[in-house]
Every structure is written in C-alpha cells, then in structure tokens.
C-alpha cells in the first residue's frame, strides 16, 4: 500500500509537469495518511499469511478473535446483569463464541498454545476494551 501510494501520487506530480489535467503538485497530506494506514494493512497481511500455515504460530492467531469474542461476551454479560439490556447481543456472542471456539480449536496446530493464547487474549481484550465500560 505504501508503494502504491507513492507511485500514484508521485506519478501524478510528474505527469502534472507535462499534462495540465494532472496538475496540482504532490499531495503530501494524502500520501502521509495512506502511508500511516499501510502499517495496519501490512500487519493484517502478515496475520492472514500465517493464519493457515502449518506452524505453531497459527494457534495464537486462531485464539485472538475467539479471545476478543470471549471478552465481549464477559463484558456484555456484566452489563446485562447491571442494566438489563443487550440480551440478544449476549445470546449471539455466546453462540459465536462456542461455534468459533470449537472450529478454531480443531484447526489449531497446538491445542495447548491455543488454550493459553485464548485465556491471555481474553484477559487483555477485556481489560483494554470492556473493563472501564462495565465498571461505570
């Protein structure tokens, strides 16, 4: 994405010297914005590349979304017990947690690393995203 942004805005600036349609110079602010956005895209590409490789690292990657869903389920259940709302979301999160948990557990190369990563990622996601929201 970085190379694509550089070539797009660079080519537009070079063509603007010869063709009036492309005039306007180099758009530094858009280039910087897309260069910054290319970092999460690169991280996502790395994760998706190693997701289905036959390595132990895929067990950690399989546990991350299930851990995030478990943290959301815990947060929503606490919120439901306090304020008596979001029952449907709790039901959907619980069903998704069970289905994805079983599906990803079967596909993980190392079951022990999957379970450990699941517990750690659930705790991290809960305390980062939901702990303050449910303690209000």
Automatic annotation (TrEMBL):
Transmembrane stretches, start-end: 7-24, 30-51, 60-80, 86-105, 112-130
Alphabetical keyword list: Membrane, Transmembrane, Transmembrane helix
Name listed for the protein in its UniProt record: Uncharacterized protein
Lineage of source species: Bacteria, Bacillati, Bacillota, Clostridia, Lachnospirales
């Amino acid at each position: 994405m970085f190379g694509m942004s550089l070539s797009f805005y660079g080519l537009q600036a070079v063509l603007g010297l010869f063709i009036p349609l492309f005039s306007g110079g180099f758009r530094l602010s858009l280039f910087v914005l897309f260069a910054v956005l290319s970092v999460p895209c690169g991280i996502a590409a790395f994760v998706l590349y190693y997701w289905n490789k036959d390595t132990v690292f895929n067990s950690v990657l399989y546990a991350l979304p299930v851990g995030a869903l478990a943290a959301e389920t815990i947060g929503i259940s606490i919120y439901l017990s306090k304020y008596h709302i979001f029952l449907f979301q709790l039901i959907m999160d619980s069903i998704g947690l069970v289905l994805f948990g079983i599906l990803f557990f079967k596909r993980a190369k190392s079951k022990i690393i999957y379970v450990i990563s699941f517990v750690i990622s659930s705790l991290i996601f809960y305390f980062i995203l939901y702990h303050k929201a449910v303690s209000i």
